[in-house]
Amino acid sequence: MEPAHDDLRARLQTDRPHSARVWNYLLGGKDNYPVDIEAGEAILATFPEFASVARQQRRFLARAVRFLAGEAGIRQFLDIGTGLPTADNTHELAQRIAPESRIVYVDNDPLVLVHARALLTSSPEGACAYVDADVRDPDRILAEASKTLDLDRPVGLTMLGILGQISDEDRPAELVSALLDGLPAGSWLALSDGTNTNEALNRAVEVYNRQSANTYHLRSPQEIASFFSGLDVVEPGVVPTVEWRPDPGRPDQDAPHVSIAGVAAKR
Length: 267
Description:
This protein has 267 residues and is an alpha/beta fold. The chain is built from ten helices and eight strands. Helix 2 crosses helix 3 and helix 4 (50-69) runs parallel beside helix 5 (90-97). The radius of gyration is 17 Å and the shape is globular. Mean pLDDT is 89; it is low at 1-5. Pfam families: Methyltransf_19 (PF04672).
């Protein structure tokens, strides 16, 4: 068993920050290492509002999944770039509305997968599965997801903050298309990502990228909106994340608008 432990340690790279662990720190979690805390504090020193940006994205996930499981009637979800478990994970949100919902979580961070298997337990009527894969390998993701999901029936594909971790050289729009090509008509995409419209955030991401094991790539709102090409985007469109069907009270309304989000159906 020792080689497996060595491989796990090597993949964890506890000497360098990892995005899921830094995100966990910014959300107030405990599943991180000193290097992740240091990276998180460096981001906050340059862009103090970043923790609220992290919360914005979690709240968008909740609103999007409630829409998909409720109004859209989706009963299968493929959550790519899961991140470390926190409150209101995809299966919890969906199964509150439809206990029979089936969810596949995908991440390539071994710490995420260890925690997901331990903490993300399905309702008896539904199912949860966990796939160790990179978004750059859509064929593997779809093949593994098909063991839990019926890919002849509509699926809700969620991609929150994941395409920012993909460089232009890896063609993020083609990765989205490849995943959607493996899903039937009537499937949905919920996507949110960071924009390059705020200079303080741009500087904070530069600081992060200089020390992190994985870099983040902010893009223009137009580039992010192009990921929805060929899909039927529901109202209010591809908009600042806090403006996508906000809950009453709009707790994030005063936060900087540095990410955009949308939900769209595949014809």
